[in-house]
Design a protein that fits this description.
By secondary structure, this protein is an all-alpha fold. 69% of the residues lie in helices and 0% in strands. The radius of gyration is 16 Å and the shape is globular. The structure holds zinc ion. The site of zinc ion has 4 residues, from loops. Zinc ion binds next to loops.
Length: 179
């Protein structure tokens, strides 16, 4: 069992390597690792730094979905709980995007309390990246579309952490104000 510091450090390192060269969608096409750092840090702040496995899962939450990382690998390297949390945040990429989105809304209320926190942090980060100072019509449409969908997913995830819920509401407000 890794110490809390090593758990998070190893998770950040693996995530950075696995997502190397990927850019995130949205403003400035930032390196993907910026998104992972933001999600992990939101989770660390939301829980007062008390849950290293949750923060590690934040770093790793897109590794199974977007890279050739498996649940078994995460379970062996980190823990069953970390691996399970990442699996809970993994969409079935064999499905079309519209179906994946529909399932996220339906499945959100059935997720574990900790997976719900990761989902909310993920949506906060993704909305933030889509806010542009001077959006073009395509960026505007994307922000409206993404934020509306994110609100429906987060409606099924709320209630476990008031700070995170407020952060999400702030992100939605900022998105609306930017349009
Ligand atoms: Zn993500």
């Amino acid at each position: 069992m890794l110490s809390p510091v090593r758990l998070i450090s190893e998770a950040a390192e693996l995530a950075a390597r696995r997502h190397n060269g990927m850019a995130r969608k949205g403003r400035g096409s930032e390196p993907y690792v910026n998104h992972l750092a933001e999600v992990a840090n939101l989770l660390a702040t939301a829980t007062g730094g008390a849950d290293a496995e949750l923060v590690a899962a934040g770093w790793l939450h897109d590794t199974i979905e977007d890279t050739d990382t498996t649940r078994e690998e995460l379970a062996a390297k980190f823990s069953d709980r970390v691996a399970s949390l990442v699996v809970e945040c993994t969409d079935d990429m064999r499905l079309p995007k519209a179906e994946r989105r529909r399932r996220q809304v339906i499945d959100a209320p059935k997720k574990s309390a900790d997976a719900k926190l990761i989902k909310i942090a993920d949506k906060i980060s993704n909305i933030g990246a889509r806010i542009h100072a001077e959006p073009n019509p395509e960026e505007r449409d994307d922000l409206v579309d993404y934020t509306g969908w994110a609100e429906r997913v987060v409606a099924g995830c709320r209630g476990g952490n008031p700070w995170l819920d407020t952060k999400f509401d702030d992100a939605v407000k900022a998105a609306r104000a930017s349009l």
